[in-house]
Amino acid sequence: MKQKFVISLILLSLQVTMSFSQRTTTFTERELEIIGHETGESVFRILQTTDPVDSLILRMPSTDMADPDSIADDKNLQLLIERLRITMEQAGGVGIAAPQVGVLKNVFLFMRVDLPGKPLQVVINPRMVAHSAETVCFERDGCLSIPDTSGNSIRYPWIEVEFWDEKGDFHRERLEGYQRGDNFAAVIFQHEFDHLQGIFFTDKNCLLEEEIWK
Ligand SMILES: [Zn+2]
Known about the structure:
Strands 1-2-3-6-7 form a five-stranded antiparallel beta sheet, with helices on both faces. It has one domain (about 40-205): Peptide Deformylase (Alpha-Beta Complex), CATH 3.90.45. The longest helix has 23 residues, at about 1-25. The chain contains six helices and seven strands, in the order ααααβββββββαα. Helix content is about 35%, strand content about 25%. The chain is α+β, with helices and mostly antiparallel strands. The structure holds zinc ion (ZN).
């Protein structure tokens, strides 16, 4: 009886510790250095798969931002987002994920090529809640972290996603589009979402029909 009580006490304290640490999970010291104090510059260095250490970091899974309610007030997160925006624009990309600059958090930015004016979308703690049964072979995918490489990647033509934006507003929406040069919003989302799990487009290579029997 006493043993049972002790075990349940241990379990309870473990639970309390775990929920406490989940609530307070935030940027590591190294991540804070990258975000705020590195050189005072606004453009991040984008990690490259050609660098041995960078390539290991790029393969690591990221974790959720602790508390969606505090997104708008999190100065470090807001600075990360602002600097990611500048970095992506300077690199001429249509998307960038936090792990690409060494911050292993579930945060990415992408261009809403499906909306008028192609505004920038900030995505925090995303989930893919549904997707098409079929897949398509998307032409000429590319990545800011994989220099001089382009290739086709297997993608879902539509996905249903949930995420928070930089103001802390919750979104649930269906993204469509896999035509390069037109709307390929669903593909960009999947590409950036993969980065949060350490997955590259080169892991999803495919052949277009006309390439198969060449
Ligand atoms: Zn990429």
